[in-house]
């Protein structure tokens, strides 16, 4: 195995707490901290009176395996806009490159521009701009959780940088198995007979099908018709199912919720079909605009029971209080394991393999 050298972890201001969580998880991995100490890198952002910024690296990183955590969501504890976040990231990459890091991995748990992955008419392509800029500045490796589309990975030129689009669905599946299924008997009877996994739209069918295969239950496909005149607006949703939905427990799964318009309409339509329980499990809690109020309304009207999200985006305490039915699944341990394996030159194939359901359930009952 090829060892990439001493690990040093940095973060932009948008991802400081997340990076600290990953470092804490790394300390618990095998003999990692006995080999490498002081994992947290010294990065300072200076802001000038005219609004310009400068990023300084306060230590030598020459020939080190550097990981830079960043989150481009506008929801962060410094209230930085998406644009300001990206500019800070680009400055940080430039500074780390000039400091002669041996390798420079940008780790974005959530890529905010991932939906802007193709040109329509004369539009710009946000993901292309983002990736090309980072590569031009010296990024050699890009890691993220659950890009919006598989084809997005082709934007990166493999002769200049590598990309690992890591699935985060295992975090949700394992949480559901441990906290909702709990036993092998329940999995083989109640889940198989009474559960169904539902996509939000045709584009989410692949993810929903993977969940349905894991839980060995029915698959429901929703097909939405968007407004051609209003952004983030759904005009109609059709539901496709091979079996009746009466008295079913439905899990709606998707990679993200933005304004919540699609899922709001879908939950109401499912309730009209006579389902017993509706739960939602998503990876990226974008939750912009009216999303929070829509979720609150669904819960207050007894349409929605549980809402699971992964902490790929900062969720402030006030939002957690507004959504007491929301459970935040932590991902730092997964990020730490990925970094550890990449650093020692080990395979990361295991993160792409199907879950061993009964093994997870056995551990849940220990």
Description:
The protein is of the alpha/beta class and 366 residues long. Helices cover 35% and strands 23% of the residues. It is built from 12 helices and 14 strands. The strands form 3 sheets. Strands 10-9-8-11-12-13-14 form a 7-stranded mixed sheet, sandwiched between helices. A 5-stranded parallel sheet has the order 1-4-5-6-7, with helices on both faces.
Question: What are the SSEs and their pairings?
Answer:
Elements: E1 7-11, H1 16-26, H2 32-35, E2 43-47, E3 53-57, E4 65-69, H3 82-98, E5 103-108, H4 126-137, E6 141-145, E7 162-166, H5 169-181, H6 184-194, E8 195-199, H7 205-215, E9 218-226, E10 234-241, E11 249-257, H8 261-272, E12 277-285, H9 291-300, E13 306-310, H10 317-322, E14 326-329, H11 332-344, H12 357-364
Parallel strand pairs: 1-4, 4-5, 5-6, 6-7, 8-9, 8-11, 11-12, 12-13, 13-14
Antiparallel strand pairs: 2-3, 9-10
Helix pairs in contact: 1-11, 3-4, 5-12, 8-9
Provide keyphrases for this structure.
366 residues, alpha/beta, Rossmann fold, 2 domains, 7-stranded mixed β-sheet, 5-stranded parallel β-sheet, 23% strand
Number of self-contained structural domains = 2
Shape: globular
CATH architecture of the largest domain: 3-Layer(aba) Sandwich
The ordered H/E elements are EHHEEEHEHEEHHEHEEEHEHEHEHH
Using only C-alpha atoms, the radius of gyration works out to: 21 Å
For the sheet with most strands, the description reads: 7 strands, mixed
Question: How many separate helices?
Answer: 12
Mean pLDDT: 90
Helix content: 25-40%
> Helix/strand/pairing class, anyone?
alpha/beta
Q: Low-confidence spans: pLDDT under 50, at least 5 residues? A: none
CATH domain fold name of the largest domain: Rossmann fold
Percent of residues in beta strands?
15-25%
CATH class of the largest domain: Alpha Beta
**Reading side by side through the largest sheet, how are the strands ordered?**
10-9-8-11-12-13-14
Question: What is the multimeric organization of the chains shown?
Answer: single chain
- The count of strands amounts to 14
Quote the distance from N terminus to C terminus.
34 Å
């Amino acid at each position: 195995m090829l060892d990439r050298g001493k690990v040093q972890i940095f973060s932009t201001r948008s991802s400081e707490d997340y990076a600290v969580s990953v470092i804490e998880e790394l300390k618990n991995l095998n003999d990692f901290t006995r080999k490498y100490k002081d994992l947290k890198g010294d990065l300072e952002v200076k802001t000038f009176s005219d609004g310009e910024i400068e990023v300084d690296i306060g230590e030598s990183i020459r020939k080190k395996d550097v990981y830079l955590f960043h989150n481009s969501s506008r929801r962060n504890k410094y209230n930085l806009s998406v644009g300001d976040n990206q500019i800070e990231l680009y400055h940080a990459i430039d500074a780390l490159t000039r400091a002669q890091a041996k390798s420079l991995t940008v780790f974005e748990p959530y890529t905010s521009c991932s939906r802007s992955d193709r040109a329509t008419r004369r539009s710009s392509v946000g993901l292309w701009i983002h990736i090309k800029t980072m590569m031009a500045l010296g990024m050699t490796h890009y890691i993220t959780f659950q890009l919006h589309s598989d084809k997005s990975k082709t934007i990166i030129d493999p002769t200049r940088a590598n990309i690992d689009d890591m699935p985060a669905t295992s975090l949700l599946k394992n949480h559901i198995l441990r906290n909702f299924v709990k036993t092998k008997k329940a999995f083989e009877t109640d889940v198989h007979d009474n559960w169904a996994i539902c996509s939000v739209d045709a584009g989410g069918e692949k993810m929903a099908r993977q969940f349905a295969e894991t839980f060995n239950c029915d698959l429901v496909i929703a097909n939405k018709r968007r407004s051609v005149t209003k952004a983030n607006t759904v005009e109609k949703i059709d539901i496709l199912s091979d079996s009746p939905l009466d008295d079913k427990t439905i899990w709606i799964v998707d990679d993200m919720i933005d304004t919540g318009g699609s899922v709001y309409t879908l939950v109401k339509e499912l309730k009209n079909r006579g389902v017993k329980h509706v739960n939602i499990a998503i990876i990226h809690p974008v939750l912009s605009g009216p999303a929070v109020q829509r979720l609150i309304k669904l819960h207050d009207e007894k349409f929605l029971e549980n809402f699971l999200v992964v902490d790929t985006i900062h969720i402030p305490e006030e939002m957690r209080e507004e959504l007491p039915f929301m459970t935040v699944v932590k991902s730092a341990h997964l990020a730490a394991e990925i970094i550890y394996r990449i650093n020692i030159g080990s395979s990361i194939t295991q993160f792409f393999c199907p879950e061993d359901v009964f093994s997870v359930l056995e551990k849940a009952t220990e």
